[in-house]
Amino acid sequence: MSKVKAGGSSKNVHDSPGQRLGVKRFGGQTVRAGEVLVRQVGETKQAGPGTYMSRNYTIHAEKDGIVNFRQIKTRRFTGKTAPRTQVVVQ
User: Fold this and answer.
1) What is the residue range of 30's domain?
2) CATH number, domain containing residue 55
């Protein structure tokens, strides 16, 4: 028989830092070209005119201007429309 009592596996030991996601420049703020406007996981907000989306879904300003957010309806694969926020630089 074993002399030592069985030690269970430890839980809740993996500690990863936060990803610092979210909106970085808000509506009405002036931005320069290339600035990060929104960091996100997946396409929760869409890139509109004056912006572009990088590989990790980060939305950047394409030109200098003022940031605006507007609500649009996006059509999904099933045909259902879903409301989305579009980021625009004017």
Assistant:
1) 22-89
2) 2.40.50.100
* Alpha carbon distance 64, 33 (integer Å): 5
pLDDT at 88: 97
Q: Is 14 exposed, middle or buried (0-12, 13-18, 19+ CB in 10 A)?
A: exposed
Output the pTM of the full model: 0.79
Residue 81, in any domain of the structure: yes
Checking if the pLDDT of 37 tops 80, the result is: yes
> Pairing relation of β-strands 81-89 and 45-47?
parallel
3-state secondary structure the chain: CCCCCCCCCCCCCCCCCCCCCEECCCCCCEECCCCEEEECCCCCEEECCCEEECCCCCEEECCCEEEEEEEEEEECCCCCEEEEEEEEEC
Q: Considering its fold, how many domains does the chain have in total?
A: 1
